[in-house]
Amino acid sequence: MRIHRGAIAGCAATSPSSASKVAASTVWEILTSEGIDPAPDRAATTWADFLRSQADALLACDFIETVTLTGQRQYILAVIEHATRRIRVLGTTAHPTAAWVTQAARNLAMDLTDTKATHAYLIRDRDAKYPALFGDILRNAGIQIVRTGIRIPRMNAIMERWVQTCRHELMNRTLVWNERHLRHALRQFELHYNLHRSHQATDQAAPLRAVPAPLPHAQITQLKVRRRDRLGGVLHEYQHAA
Known about the structure:
- This protein is α/β, with parallel strands linked by helices and 242 residues long.
- It has two domains: 2-44, no CATH class; 49-202, 2-Layer Sandwich (Nucleotidyltransferase, domain 5).
- It has helices spanning 2-12, 24-33, 39-43, 47-53, 98-114, 132-140, 157-169, 179-195, 217-220, and strands at 58-67, 73-81, 87-93, 121-124, 144-147, 225-230, 235-240.
- The radius of gyration is 26 Å and the shape is globular.
- It starts with a helix and ends with a strand.
């Protein structure tokens, strides 16, 4: 800051009459050269910046709809951790009643307690399928509900991104026979997503698997890769052969 004041003082000291006036263009050039944003921009915080800064405390949830080959509509409830991208598929049902959603909230609260999670907020939309007791159970577990704005899906962007991934990598490539088959497929996708699938947001680590140590050059030249298929080849997993 001393450099900036000195530079401005030097510009202002060219004549006694202009000592109290500095051209706006001069100030702009000094701030730009130092990489300093204008004052209003320095004070602003975008929603994306807020989510990144508070990721360790955030959860998000959403319902996904799909239809089986029998024509039955199924509703899937899933929760994601912002920091690790770990996904929890809480269940699927043809009738998301208040009792069913409430029990899903209890299961989530118990799971978070067992894993000693420290999340403080859960982001969800304004879907009427969430009963009041859903929020009460999570508040008793120390988690506050944050509802998104009306027709603003970007407020729940990380969960929406997972929904897109689930549809692209699983739903659109699988013929789901019935509810039992859907639960099996979702369980396999959950395991694949948490234990194997790498994520750019976590430096190519999986939610429950750290990035493996780099291989020495001599081993790379003789690298052997083994492929494991899930769901009959819908999902592929690769690992180094022993």
